[in-house]
Design goal:
By secondary structure, this protein is α/β, with parallel strands linked by helices. It is 34% helix and 24% strand. It contains 13 helices and 14 strands. Strands 1, 2, 3, 4, 5, 6, 7, 8, 9, 10 and 11 form an eleven-stranded mixed sheet that branches. Strands 13-12-14 form a three-stranded mixed sheet, covered by helices on one side. α7 links the parallel β5 and β6. The structure holds zinc ion (ZN). Zinc ion (ZN) binds next to α9.
């Protein structure tokens, strides 16, 4: 429990005092005094709302895992449409997105010699199957993908390549980028060096025995070999055995299948603006998840936070500009929903006045930043001022990138925003069977909703629109 929130929620007197103080001092060229008072009311309302919790509980319990193209994915689309309608959004619609469909059936692995024991393994997305009995070969260990790349032509001939790179833990998740290279294309490089199989230390900061899955790719003209990840504890064990100097043989058995082109849907909902209906704030998350857990942190939380924030941000009435929530399809397989959205909405992207995606778990938002035209910076700093009491720091670098689903939007210079969550613990659970609802702290979830609701209300109702660079 967080002391700040406890004090906020316990004393009505405290809440009304801080509210008066905020309105008395607030002055802005971009917002009326009445609007700033409304922002404060929406913030307080969000800090006491269970809406996001109820949504993520419902999604992870009643739908569960939502891997693109599975019955769970289909159920999630129906769930989102029904929830948006029940929440009173003015418009609710879906837009199709296609992607290469892949299904996991089973996976197992073991050290065969010199010290027989099971390994906790998961196939990486897109992996081919092994023969029914699995593959068995000697392990050759590398510490990094670069070390493998620099190894001689046939360094791994007939062997199973093991990359033992451990990602670092940090609030902003900077360890993910360097680590994910070995997941994305490790099997390609291993095959180029003659390997018959590929296994890596999970892209993970954890000290538990869950393996982390994630997307991977093959390359035309390079032999496809099985691609997989073992838990950090198992990677430690394998490393210790290899270090003893005797040959280490392991078995990997993965049964999975590529199923051709699949189709899913971006689910989109809008509160229509009264003055500039075509202009819109775009917030959202991705509706799909990996299949191992229930996708609570990735990205049930982001779905729930942005749905709830949109709803709370219209509690004082219809917005001036539209507020659009987009729940992207098939993010985990390669941003397929986001790519389809940009293609289908190419002509209206210039009407986006602010965009942000929540896709980094459910811990507190600690930083706020923009990526907008300098003309709009005073408006941005007004928003930042209203986020201060939520413990959100204004970075003022004006180089925010938004979440992964906003990557395909970048060439269009939309005004993007970063509402950065604390990712210190995120990669303990990311893409594992342990990504479940109990990892979400309801208090922290409310702080996320309050931050998004303040941001959304202010971007939608400001006197002038926010412009991109
Ligand atoms: Zn995600």
């Amino acid at each position: 429990m967080n002391n700040r929130f406890t004090s906020m929620l316990s004393g009505l007197l405290f809440a009304s005092l801080s509210f008066n103080a905020a309105t008395a001092h607030a002055q802005s060229d971009n917002f009326s005094t009445q609007q700033l008072a409304q922002v404060e009311q929406i913030k307080q309302q969000a800090l006491q709302s269970d809406l996001a919790w109820n949504l993520v509980e419902s999604l992870t319990t009643e739908v569960g895992p939502r891997m693109p193209g599975t019955p769970g994915d289909k159920a999630a689309v129906a769930w989102a449409v029904a929830k948006f309608k029940a929440m009173g959004f003015d418009k609710v619609w879906t837009e199709p997105a296609t992607f290469p469909k892949w299904i996991r059936y089973s996976e197992s692995a073991a050290i065969v010699s010199p010290s027989p024991q099971p390994l906790h393994i998961t196939a990486l997305g897109n992996s081919i199957s092994t023969p029914k009995a699995g593959i068995q070969a000697q392990v050759i260990e590398f510490q990094t993908l670069a070390e493998l790349e620099n190894a001689p032509e046939d360094a791994a001939k007939g062997k199973i390549v093991f990359i033992n790179y451990r990602m670092n833990r940090d609030r902003d998740g900077n360890g993910y980028g360097p680590a994910v290279q070995a997941r994305s294309r490790g099997a390609v490089v291993a095959a180029q060096k003659g390997a018959i199989g590929y296994v890596m230390r999970s892209v993970s900061t954890a000290y538990h025995r869950f393996a982390h899955t994630g997307g991977s790719h093959y390359k035309d003209g390079v032999t496809k070999i099985v691609t997989s990840a073992i838990s950090n504890a198992d990677a430690d064990q394998l490393h210790r055995l290899v270090a003893l100097g005797k040959p280490v043989t392991i078995n990997i058995n993965v049964q999975a299948k590529s199923m051709g082109e699949g189709t899913s849907y971006n689910v989109i909902a809008e509160f229509t603006g009264t003055e500039f209906p075509e202009q819109h704030v775009l917030i959202g998350g991705h509706l799909d998840s990996w299949d191992l857990g229930t996708g609570a942190l990735d990205d049930g939380a982001g779905v729930a936070i942005t749905m709830a924030a949109a709803k709370l941000s219209v509690s004082k009435g219809q917005p001036k500009r539209s507020i659009r929530v987009v729940l992207f399809a098939a993010e985990e397989f390669g941003l397929w929903g986001a790519k389809a959205y940009v293609k289908a909405n190419k002509n209206s992207l210039r009407n986006i006045v602010a965009a942000a995606e929540s896709d980094f778990g459910a811990d507190k938002i600690w930083a706020f930043d923009s990526n907008v035209h300098t003309r709009s910076l005073s408006l941005v700093s007004d928003i930042a001022a209203m986020l201060k009491s939520l413990d959100v720091e204004y970075l003022a670098k004006n180089s925010a990138r938004g979440g992964p689903d906003l990557i395909p939007f970048r060439p269009f210079n939309i005004p993007a925003f970063g509402l950065s969550q604390d990712g210190t613990d995120y990669f303990d659970y990311h893409h594992t069977a342990d990504d479940t609802l109990d990892k979400i702290d309801p208090e922290k979830l409310r702080q996320n909703v309050a931050t998004y609701a303040v941001f959304t209300f202010m971007a939608a109702n400001a006197k002038t629109r926010i412009m991109g660079k």
